[in-house]
Amino acid sequence: MLKIIFYIFLMCLSMSTKASEQSFYLSLNKASVVKPITTGECAPLPSNETLRAQTHLRTLQEWQRYCVYIPVELDDNAPLGTRLDLIFLGSAKVYWDGEWLANKGVPGHNSAQEQVGPVSLSALLSPVQTSAGLHWLALDLSTQHHESDFHTLFYGIALTNHQFALKTNHIVPLMLIGAMILLATCFAFLFFRYQRSLSYLAFSCLCLMSAFIIALELIKFYWSYPWNLHLWRLRIILACVILAGVCLVSFYASFFQSKHLKYWLAGTLALNLLTVLTVKSFDMSNYVVFITSLVNSALISWLALKKQVQAKAHLLMLLSGIAAMFLIPMSFIDTWFAALFSVIALVNLYALIGHFNLQRQAALKKSQLEAELLRRNLQPHFLMNSLTLICEWIETSPKQAIELVEQLSEEFRILNKMSEQTWVSLEDEIALCQMHFAIMQKRQQKALSLTIDVPATRYYLPPAIIHTVIENAFSHNRIKAGDSFEITASAHNNRLKLCVKTPYRQRKHQGQGTGSAYIHSRLQQCFDDDYEFESVQQDTIWLSTFLIPLQKLIPA
Predict the structure, then answer these.
(1) Into how many domains does the chain fold?
(2) Helix (H) / strand (E) containing 423
(3) How many CA atoms lie within 13 A of 146 on its CB side?
(4) Which of 144, 213, 224, 365 has the most beta carbons within 10 angstroms of its beta carbon?
(5) Per-residue three-class SS string for 246-296
(6) At residue 159, what are phi and psi to the nearest 5 degrees?
């Protein structure tokens, strides 16, 4: 399923969203006359006196009423289906060449008179209205229903081709929304049902917030909501960007196993809060919040370069995003914001798929090692010899038979528990070795000795590696009365050295069987290649030496 979503992302990013070459667009933002009024209504056509006051639509302010006149010069007849698009935070009556065209709410001199209309309006123009020559667009406009000072009230007025507007391609962002929701659901499921990895949860939240951001950007194309709700839409977008930034930092800190996750999150949240309190523009707030998250994520990736091979690819991607934001900041906010989110999600998805596959392989290897540990200790000859001895003792020495049964039961219980673990304490490992030694001493019916010299500190190591050495000594050796076994451990320079001495009376090499393979597999699973294991003969002694990293806590 993850690969299917990955291909959906690639398809989305490769599809073109360009419109037909027959599209028509004429901006009407520049040559405008804006005149404030306190009483009455606006005339459908401007007077000569009015035309002397040249201002710009961006001078619109809250709690005002204006007469707006815009000359429209068409050199040729506009294409059939041309329409007038208006996007601003205010109510207005719209006139074209002195005739009423449409209402965008009802303008008024106060909030009681004003009726809020949609944030955007599209009005289809007839061929006569779009013939070559000079035309006049007039707006009787008011902005009474604003709850606070707003950075921008005017967004644009233009003539566009109606057919182009109908064919505008929103399929790609809609597919991205669907893909991100699928990803969010998939990784939330993995988090709750497979592994409680913070990187899974952070990536799920990142995808969900990305989907919300793209959806909130697209909503204006499908719902012309009342313009007094626009402020709330921008607030929700800013909240989603803040959450997405926190999720991004959280993902990288957990994915690269940073030890300072809490500090990264606290720093990111503090900077975001400072941005919200000091920056008035929503666009600029989104810009600063997101670039803060990118910079923090890039720093985490940079710090992980020495330990994580894939950190380099993530760092290059994040630096590219930061560069794009500095080179084309406004274009980035309007056009590439969601695109960069999608690329980040795509790269992180690819990394998580690889990470997920490695975890599956590790889980499979762990299962194989668990089965190997149990199989080696449930060998037919071991069980047969033990059961035969028990049968004999039931007749001759019931007490010893019961003790042997209890010891066998306890050893199998410990082994079964250990088989499900990746790490065990040195104390538990020694207890297992003592149990196995006691069982084998009863079976051999010989006087044997086991000397143990290990520190009292609680260290952790892979399960049953010392036990395997002891077991091999009994399974592949000729044991005689008086033989001694020795287990020692010492810590130095953040390394734990384990030495196991066992008797040796055979020609066959003791360390090349399945036991040795099991030991190497367990050490590789826990330490990669950062370990040493040597098993050599020294006269009548077989010496097995382990040198492994010191672990005082079970690694996460």
Answers:
(1) 3
(2) none
(3) 20
(4) 213
(5) HHHHHHHHHHCCCCCHHHHHHHHHHHHHHHHHHCCCHHHHHHHHHHHHHHH
(6) -95, 130
- The range of the structural domain enclosing residue 240 comes to 2-15+169-359
- The secondary structure element, H or E, covering residue 544 is strand 541-549
**Are 255 and 390 in a shared domain?**
no
Section 396-417 average pLDDT: 82
Task: List the CATH number of the domain containing 469.
Answer: 3.30.565.10
Residue 556 in any domain: the answer is no
CA-based nearest residue to 422, from 383, 462, 467: 462
Cα dihedral sign, 358-363-364-368: positive
Domain check: are 302 and 203 in the same one?
yes
How do residues 56-70 score in pLDDT, each as one tens digit?
677 788 899 998 888
82 vs 330, residue with greater confidence: 82
Residue with tokens 């038979």: 401
Q: Are strands 91-96 and 99-104 parallel, antiparallel or unpaired?
A: antiparallel
| Ramachandran angles phi, psi of 24, nearest 5° | -125, 130
The predicted pLDDT at position 511 comes to 44
Residue 470 near residue 517, CB atoms below 8 Å:
no
CA 29 to CA 85: how far, in whole Å?
Answer: 11
**Would the pLDDT of 509 be above 50?**
no
Which parts of 75-151 are beta strand (E)?
Answer: 82-88, 91-96, 99-104, 120-124, 133-142
Out of 20-34, 133-147, 377-391, 493-507, pick the least confident: 377-391
532 occurs within a structural domain: yes
**Token pair 């990536």 in the structure block, residue:** 203
Query: Tokens 């690969």 correspond to what residue?
Result: 3
**Span 167-188, mean pLDDT?**
78
Q: What is the phi-psi region of residue 88: left when phi exceeds 0, alpha when psi lies from -120 to 50, beta otherwise?
A: beta
Q: Specify whether the CB–CB gap between 62 and 143 falls below 8 A.
A: yes
Closest listed residue to residue 376, CA positions, set 503, 474, 502, 505: 474
Helix (H) or strand (E) holding 335: none
Q: Which of 191-195, 325-329, 405-409, 455-459 has the lowest mean pLDDT?
A: 325-329
SS3 at position 500: strand
Q: Does pLDDT of 20 surpass 50?
A: no
pLDDT tens-digit profile of 293-345?
A: 999 999 999 998 877 777 888 888 888 888 877 877 655 555 566 667 667 76
